[in-house]
Every structure is written in C-alpha cells, then in structure tokens.
Amino acid sequence: MLAKPIAWVVLLFALPLAQTQAEAPSGEASPPAEAGVPATADDRPEGEDGPSSEALAPAPEPALTGLLVDRTITMIGKTFFQKFSQLRLDSAILSNASLAIHERPSARWGSIVWVSEGTRILYEATLPPRLSEVDQYAEAAVGQVEQLILRRKVTEALQDNHDLADDEF
C-alpha cells in the first residue's frame, strides 16, 4: 500500500533533475544537482524570505477579455441579454470586461437577473413579466456596471498593496 505513494514522491523529485539536465547545452555536461540545493547562483533566493518583490513578475492578464456569457433561460432573460450586449458595445470600459449574465426565473415574481464579473455581482434586478420594460432595466444595468468597473479599476490603480491577490482579503 505504501509502495505507490513513495514511487510518486521519487518521481516528483526526479522530474526537476531530469529537466535541468535536459536544458544543458549539447556540448557541455550539466553538473549533478543535489536535492533541495539550487544549481546556479541565479537560482538562489535573494533574501532570507526568497526573491525580492521587484524580482517577481506581475500576474499575467487573462488571455481572453471582453467576453459576455449568456446564462439566461427565459425569453425575458434573452431579451435582457440582447439589449445589454448591444448597449455594452458602445462603452469602451464594458467592451473589454468579461461579464456573465445569469437568470433565475420565477413564475410568481418574474425573473431575477444579475450581471457578474468573476465572483463579484455588479447588478441585480427582478425583471417584470412584460417584455416592454426590459429595455429600461438593460440600460440601467449598463450604466451601473460601467460605473462599478470604472470605480474598481481606479481603486486598483491607486492602491499599492502587493500582499493581496485579486480576490483575497
């Protein structure tokens, strides 16, 4: 029972050693590296706690931006999504933001619709059962989401805290 986990541990330690030997130039032999000891001076940490914050590269931006995901179900939700997506194209801020529009239909109250960016809910409303009023809700949603995204971007630009990631407190 213990043979398999030990084999994985040996494989995990042997894999980085094999990669460093494979990266050596073809004419030179790479020196054997001891487990847990950096091979060159460039690999050693700059301080007791590791590399300095200037040496760390910022997190890469997402590869795809400007996506709008349709998670609506009913005709009212689809109409809201279409109007929101049309109005979103006119805004430079919203055209680069990746958003999702969700819907929870209810026969009693109408449809609950919310617009989210990642894990943050930016707009939430209960749509009435009439299609004629959906356009007003979509216009209000575009205005509110644009303001919240702009406010978040300004806050992130002015805040100088390298200790916390995007969603950490």
From TrEMBL:
May be involved in the biogenesis of curli organelles. Coiled coil: none annotated. Keywords: Signal. It comes from Modicisalibacter ilicicola DSM 19980. Residues 1-22 form the signal peptide. It holds the Pfam family CsgE. This is Curli production assembly/transport component CsgE. Residues 23-61 are annotated as: Disordered. The keyword Signal applies. InterPro entries: Curli_CsgE. Residues 23-36, 52-61 have a biased composition (Low complexity).
